[in-house]
Amino acid sequence: MAAPDTSSPANRREQTIRALTEAPLDVLVIGGGIVGAGIARDAAMRGLKVGLVEQHDFAFGTSSRSSRLLHGGLRYLAQGRIGLVHEASVEKKIIHQIAPHLAQPLPFIFPTYRGNKDWVLWQLKIGVKIYDLLCHGRNLGRSTWLSTNETLEKVPGLAAPGLKGAVRYYDGFTNDARLVIDTLRSAAKSGAHLLNYCRLQDSAPGPDWTCAVMDQQATRSFAIRARAVVNATGPWADGLPHSRVKLRLTKGIHIVVDRARLAVADTVVMTEGKRILFAIPWGERTILGTTDTDHEGSPNRVTAEPPEIRYLLEVANRFFPGVALREEDVISTWAGLRPLIADPKGRPSDISRSHEIRSPEAGWWDVSGGKLTTYRLMAEQTVDRIVKSLTTNGARRFQNCRTADEPLLPIVDTAGVSAIVPPEFSRFAVEHYCRAEWAWQLADVMLRRTSWHYYFTDAPEKAEQVAGWMAEILGWSNAERARELEQYNAAHPASGSTLRPAESSS
Ligand SMILES: Cc1cc2nc3c(=O)[nH]c(=O)nc-3n(C[C@H](O)[C@H](O)[C@H](O)COP(=O)(O)OP(=O)(O)OC[C@H]3O[C@@H](n4cnc5c(N)ncnc54)[C@H](O)[C@@H]3O)c2cc1C
Q: Is the pTM of this model over 0.85?
């Protein structure tokens, strides 16, 4: 009889479940977005015994639906939130150092117009210089000022009437879902046990916490014991048992159009009153976003609605009047929820993007708010506090935080499979995602591992091919393959007749 294939994805999943259940963990992280991934990596690197469960795929939530920017936030500078901007500015540079494949310096051109009292050129000129200084004086590139003519040269097609000039400054561009996956790969290398499609259902305190989880793939439940439990569930955080988080969810959508319809070399900042929106160059495409509106209802169902899409098109058409973008130009969309700490009084775009780490009960940790850019710092602060609580009697010692210094992954582990623009369409890449990156469903590959769904105009045909490859690699029957395709096509209709919405799940 042939020896069992211990390296098959299914066998590895079983091994992970065994490791999660056989003995109590030091820390169990709930939620496989960027915050949970960062905490798992940090804790595992310090020598803690770590587990992480994610109810859907890793990066299913907000962490695959952002604007993909690593930024201090020029907007927050305008609001005088220097501390917040400084913190995020330092972090964007750290991510650039530890994950250069996922942190590209990205120039922004911010044009200003006569009569616009919200965004005044001389104030922006001072603002971008302060912005550079807040990165310890060395931003990812030096900010400059542009005259009207220079602005029009750099941004052909930009609305000229009333244009006064622009500032040009730098932030970073990333791939949000890839940042999650690569952070998790790094965590796994340090010994963390990571399980997607596994939902926390209940948790009970005791000498150790006992967490009842449901394996969504096999529809079976089991218990995981841990000395500390971290609620890192982003927009879901106030729904977990024992959570004391109070959130205000605001929704933001993005749309993708062909570069042939709207080409920008640098990101162009477009304003709507105090709000700022972006036209971001992304390989052969341009990303337009985002909106910021209050969201009621389940975080499981978030899609870009036609009025929101039309709003983005209108803003872009105002700034690029010759382009006349139409709904038919939209290749794809995504929609996400900002898990902001509740302040019922503020307007959505005014609410602070700062984070909070709280332990309302011994061993239970709520980590909420923040942004993609500051995930590493959130993780460091959380693990510092957990380590302190676990070592009060001096019996155990853990290493110091090293996440700001050690590369996420060696270059050889990311070449051809992880970058800001989608990887080449190949069976090799799909095999890698299934064998080394926990991809189980078609959408896991098409959306979160590759962004092929968002990027390619023939995504449905590509999905059919990927389903064939995944069937071979994961051993799907014909019926399973057909079901995967059916589910994918239902959740992500082809562009053209209907706009392709972002993923949702019930
Ligand atoms: C439109 C938009 C644009 C943004 N742009 C930027 C930007 O450009 N730069 C930036 O820095 N930040 C940006 N952000 C903010 C940033 O994306 C978020 O702060 C960050 O992704 C939140 O990560 P998270 O891990 O807290 O949440 P999530 O990524 O949502 O992860 C939480 C996870 O928990 C899982 N979960 C929930 N309940 C359970 C359970 N019971 N059991 C197991 N798992 C569970 C969910 O499935 C989910 O995957 C943006 C946000 C939005 C909405």
A: yes
Mean pLDDT estimate for the chain: 93
Q: How far is CA 450 from CA 6, 11, 235, 247, 466, in A?
A: 26, 24, 24, 30, 11
Q: Residues 45, 24: contact at Cβ < 8 Å? A: no
CA–chain centroid gap for 249, Å, is: 16
What are the structure tokens assigned to 207, written together?
């000498």
| Residues framing ligand 1 (Cβ under 6 A) | 30-36, 53-56, 60-63, 65-69, 71, 199-200, 232-236, 240, 252, 290, 336-339, 370-373
CATH number of 9-63+177-245+352-390: 3.50.50.60
Under a CB-based contact definition with an 8 Å cutoff, are residues 84 and 73 in contact?
Answer: yes
Could you tell me the distance, in angstroms and rounded to a whole number, from the CA of residue 188 to the centre of ligand 1? 20
- Which tokens sit at 506? 């019930």
> Is 5's pLDDT higher than 90?
no
Where does the pLDDT of residue 506 fall: very low under 50, low under 70, confident under 90, or very high at 90 and above? very low
The domain spans of the chain are: 9-63+177-245+352-390, 411-491
Distance from the alpha carbon of residue 233 to the mean position of ligand 1, in angstroms: 7
d(CA 79, CA 169): 18
Would you say residue 478 has pLDDT above 80? yes
- Cβ distance 111 to 165 under 8 Å? yes
58 alpha-carbon distance from chain centroid: 10
Ramachandran bin of 381, using left for φ above 0, alpha for ψ from -120 to 50, beta for the remaining angles: alpha
Rounded average pLDDT over 487-497: 75
What pLDDT, on a 0 to 100 scale, did the predictor assign at position 196?
A: 98
pLDDT at 39: 98
Q: What would the mean pLDDT of 398-425 be, rounded to a whole number?
A: 97
Number of H helices and E strands in the chain, helices first, is 15, 18
